[in-house]
Amino acid sequence: MSPATPIRIHTVTELTHRIRAALEDEVGTVCVEGEITNLKCYPSGHRYFSLKDAGAQLSAVLFAGMRATGNLKDGQKIRAYGNITVYPERGQYQMIVRTVEPAGAGDLMLQFEALKARLQAEGLFDNERKRPLPVLPQRVGIVTSPAGAVIHDIITILGRRFPNLNIRLAPVSVQGPSAADEIAAAIRRFNRMRETGKWYADVLIVGRGGGSLEDLWAFNVETVVRAVAGSGIPVVSAVGHETDYTLCDFAADVRAPTPSAAAEIIIPPKAELEATLHRHAETLRRALTRHAEQLAQTTDTFDLRLRHALQQQVQDARARVEHTAATLTLMRERNVRHVELRLRLNRQRLTQACALRLERHRSAAAMLARQLELLNPLTVLERGYTLTRTEDGKLVRSVSDVDAGSPILLTHVNDGILRSRIECPVPM
Asked: What is the rounded CA–CA span in Å between residue 294 and residue 314?
């Protein structure tokens, strides 16, 4: 250009408008086929994404109200109809999409779905395999890039929430050809350290910041997914943004929507824990105080009941003793009276028996006396009868007892004895 040729000076806005006009005039309405990546949907209904193929990417926007067949998602292959223009605020050319129709699934999404189905069939994503995170971890292992905002955000949040944590970073590439092998190796290295006891992590955070499906692809590689699933240490997957999903998310014990959220998930704030412990301690102290008061009251109640029971037992025992004594006294008095009565009765009976027996003996004696008297030969003499005996004392009952000229006979009369001799016995 000749030095004499004047150079027109443009403002950035003027130049951008000239480029936009040239693009819109030259290219105009186009139909572009490509794979959706880095899709973002906003509450307004507008959807921003990129269309890519093996060689390039094209920014695109589908405003609310434009026609789209089916729901858009990352990895989906579409045909987009619209206009090429420039977004002045960023100085970036983009496609304003008017109509979208599916053109088949993208290659990466097909790989993603195929590997997901195969690993899911193996049970690698089953909930039964997932373990709870430790309540209060002391050592946190982090597998991510040493550069960028992710590690800074995680360390900042962990330090703010719980300053006493031990943190160890396993620096890895999170994007590129070697990223998957580095991530898998770091996870296995943490597990070996846990087995040897040199330095072990209670929980692992594996992740990176947001990006397109290609950017996050290292976390969809089978070696990484199996390393996460086979880890003996609980793993929190924190890959991308909330809308991004990788196979690591399905294999991990817990999925965090962002790396910052992962730092918040693994441990509560120390002040909150201390406050909770203080509340629990205060609750426990009050409960123990109430329990001690209840025990003291219960002890006092038992003491009163025991004293009352002992007093009642003493009173009952005294009453039983008094009752027994009274009963014994009454029984003794009754027995004495009974014995006395029996003695009187026996005395009366004995007296009566003795009197009766005496009377009987007297009667018998009198009868015997009368009989003796009746039998007494002397008694008959008073009535004029006599008794005759021989000198030798033999009683003469019959005339045949004596002969004429018998010895002297002795005849007893009432007032004496007559001596006689038999001259001649005369029979009657």
From this structure: 29
Q: Answer for the pair 371, 377: CB distance below 8 angstroms, yes or no.
A: no
**135: which residues sit within 8 A by CB, 6+ positions away?**
none
Q: Is-contact 67 73, C-beta < 8 A?
A: no
At 161, list the tokens. Answer: 């929430």
Q: Which residue has the tokens 């910041």?
A: 209
**CA separation for the pair 105, 30 (Å, rounded):** 21
Element (H or E) spanning 114, and its range? helix 107-121
Q: Residue 365 and residue 358: Cα distance in Å, rounded?
A: 10
* Percent composition of the chain: helix, strand, coil (DSSP 3-state, to 5): 50, 20, 30
Beta bridge pairs of residue 87: 92
Class of residue 352 by CB neighbours under 10 A (exposed 0-12, middle 13-18, buried 19+): exposed
Phi–psi pair at 124, nearest 5 degrees: -70, -25
Helix axis angle for 259-266 and 149-161, nearest 10°, is 20
Nearest in space to 221 (alpha carbons), one of 262, 269, 260, 184? 184
Residue closest to 77 by CA, chosen among 238, 187, 213, 270? 213
pLDDT digits (tens, 9 = 90+) for 202-248: 999 999 988 777 888 999 999 999 999 999 999 999 998 877 789 99
Condensed to tens digits (0 to 9), the pLDDT of residues 154-195 reads 999 999 988 888 999 999 999 999 999 999 999 999 999 888
Q: How confident is the model at residue 377 (pLDDT cuts 50, 70, 90)?
A: low
Give the up-direction half-sphere exposure of residue 33: CA atoms within 13 A in the CB hemisphere. Answer: 5
Distance CA 266, CA 256 (A): 10
Question: Dihedrals φ, ψ of 235, to 5°?
Answer: -115, 135
- Identify the CA nearest to 244 among candidates 266, 272, 211: 211
Angstrom distance (rounded) from CA 407 to CA 396 = 12
| Contact assessment for residue 219 and residue 239, using Cβ atoms and an 8 Å cutoff | yes
Residue 101 · residue 203 · CB < 8 Å = no
**DSSP alpha helices (H): ranges in 376-418?**
377-382
Strands (E) across 154-276 are located at 166-171, 203-208, 235-239, 254-255
Edge to edge, the sheet with strand 387-390 lists 387-390, 409-413, 416-420
